[in-house]
Specification:
The strands form 2 sheets. Strands 2-1-6 form a 3-stranded antiparallel sheet. The chain is elongated, with a radius of gyration of 22 Å. Helix 3 crosses helix 6 and helix 4 packs across helix 6. The protein has 2 domains: about 160 residues, Triger factor/SurA peptide-binding fold; about 110 residues, Chitinase A, domain 3, CATH 3.10.50. It starts with 8 loop residues before the first helix and ends in a 9-residue tail after the last strand. The chain has about 300 residues and is α+β, with helices and mostly antiparallel strands.
Length: about 300
Amino acid sequence: MKKILITLCLSLLIIFSAVAEDKSGISFDDMPDETILASVGKYNITMYDLKVYIVGYKTIHSWTLEAFDNILSALMLDLLYQCACEDEKLTVSEEEVGLYAENFFTERSIDFKNPDEILGYFNTHDPYYDIDDFLLKSQYFLTKIKYLSAHDAIETFRTSMIFVSAKKMKKNEKAEVYKKAMKITNDILYGAVTFQDAVQQYSDDAETKATKGKLFSELTKDHRLKKEFDKKTFGKIFQAGLFFPILLEGKDGYYIIMNTDCRFDDDGKSIAAISQQLMKKYKFERKVVFREIGY
């Protein structure tokens, strides 16, 4: 939690000076930055940590008790899944975050390589202050998805694929195709080639080649793609999380699969049950009660 950019400090002072003057908001009087607000597992959330986390919420001009409580709860849940993934050795790499970020801005018609365009987006959209804030919150998001996916709690994904045919090939020929497919998978993960470009260069599937790799429909447990794999192999797609390309062997060749989005109900019974179990497993408690001041 202490990996904080010094460049945020001036903005934090400006924002929280304004909050302190808003008589309809929460009182931060006598609340030092080192005050521990909450604990989640091995992590303590200080007042300073929370200030950094909320600096991207530019549209909230009056920090009511409800708004403040919601943001603190969101940070606590982020750290809850961080603890769970650390214990289960589930990691989200910088490469996965990079692929997520590139896709995020591309879908919004923003040039990922143009800092001015990205800053313009952050200036008008919550909850991000700058690229570092965006990457940190993206890491939290992908970590949660990684844990839920590993526990088979997400059943609907938006998915892209590359198919490299090995149909009717001899064993030695098939081995060469596997090496080629593995190299493509690693090149995508480490940024040597984009997934979309790899589709055009290497895919032997005309249908998804026309859509830059995207499946026409959402991937569910009943998707027609499952007929290409045995049950265990097909299930690996749902456990991969987001933006982590995986290589799977199918009936007639090799599939490079990457989930790019998912759909689930954060308040649904299955997700809520997982969160409740983790809250019992890890220390999950508030340390400070805030008061809301009147006019």
